[in-house]
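Task: sequence design from structure.
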């Protein structure tokens, strides 16, 4: 397994719509393993393929944060929200592609998601709390949408300028 470089906003690949996965291959399984490794190393709770420069509808997540609890790594291919609660939940969201920047985002508190697993079987699960926020955040990535797209234009511009500065600093290092 290897740790993949995570794209930093603004990068045009983060705003592109990812293509559906048409077949589960060994290359795709390796990508999923590498994405999980990258997410845990970052550390984060979710990662979408376009964040590592792959425009395919694949996301990984693990929202288990309690000390001593077993991790629950999940790989979702072609995930889609098929039901969402009217009740909203607000979380302060961050993103591995927008390091050290956070904003409160309102999303449905409970969502039902359908996806294909790495065996090609269809899965369906209801997520709530942090899991619901995370899966919606990552599906947004696959649709070319970032959490800062939910906030006001001034704050979004300020964060974008900070990321441009960070990218320049990293390029010099």
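Answer:
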């Amino acid at each position: 397994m290897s740790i993949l470089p995570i794209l930093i906003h603004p990068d045009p690949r983060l705003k592109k719509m990812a293509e559906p996965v048409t077949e589960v291959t060994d290359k795709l399984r390796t990508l999923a393993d590498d994405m999980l490794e990258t997410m845990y190393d970052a550390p984060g709770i979710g990662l979408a393929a376009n964040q590592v420069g792959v425009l395919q509808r694949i996301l990984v997540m693990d929202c288990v944060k309690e000390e001593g609890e077993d991790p629950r790594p999940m790989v979702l291919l072609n995930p889609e929200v098929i039901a969402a609660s009217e009740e909203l939940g607000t979380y302060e969201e961050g993103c591995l592609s927008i390091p050290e920047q956070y904003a409160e985002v309102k999303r449905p508190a409970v969502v039902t998601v359908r996806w294909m697993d790495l065996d090609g079987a269809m899965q369906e699960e209801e997520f709530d709390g942090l899991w619901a926020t995370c899966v919606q955040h990552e599906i947004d990535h696959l649709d070319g949408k970032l959490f800062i797209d939910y906030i006001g234009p001034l704050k979004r511009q300020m964060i974008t300028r900070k990321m441009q500065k960070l990218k320049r600093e990293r390029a010099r290092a």
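The domain at 12-172 is CATH 3.90.45.10 (Peptide Deformylase).
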